[in-house]
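User: New here, any thoughts?
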Amino acid sequence: MTDLSIRPPAQPAGPTSASLTFAWRSVLKIRHVPEQLGDVIGIPILFTLLFTYLFGGAVSGSTHDYLQYLMPGTLALAVVFVTVYSGVTLNRDLTTGAFDRFRSMPIWRPAPIVGSLIGDLGRYLLAAGLVVGLGLLMGFRGAGGVIGVLAAVALVIVFASALSWAWIALGLVLRTPTAVMNLGFVLLFPLTFLSNVFVAPATMPAWLRYVADANPISHLVTAARALMDGTAAGHDVLVVLATSVVLVLVLAPLTVVLYQRRQ
């Protein structure tokens, strides 16, 4: 008979295993409560349809021509707006006491946060896929072909993943999921609308043009347009990647500190 007392104790999950487990938890939450995807589905469809047919005739004289300009912008816009839900879902776990259970487990401390961010990639891919698919049905045709579209989607998701750390930090500071969502949208509306998503900055007043040109969302949209059009996008791609790195380097350590203080 085997002596169970001499067996070595079970080893706790490592950082990678724990993070992937929490990422799978995020997927299962959506599977059991698919209503969570309502905004993720609605925002891309609403933005693409509404702005194309509402502004297309006035801005370009043709909804088809305007779609060629707008679609990379709505791609960035839709995915960036979805990032707010990273903070909302984290805050919901805090308010329901789920994180009190997680901190009692022998796991890597940041695993719930990192896993949640990995799980949110599915939301971003869904939002991006809806914008691209709807744009193609409406008549968008990028000269960059499939490779250009995929490169643009990848760049947008990289930036969105970095920006998600900001909403995670807010989720650790604010008291309710509603507060996180409201403040997130209040911050995102001027950031996204004061950019080149809808119109070229050259048509704006000088002071507003400087704001739009300096806006990181403008660099993201310019890079996405160039990739989809098959033209040179090196400078703006580098700016977007550098901005993403800075966001992670600044916000990730801050988020970890805030998370540890909650405990």
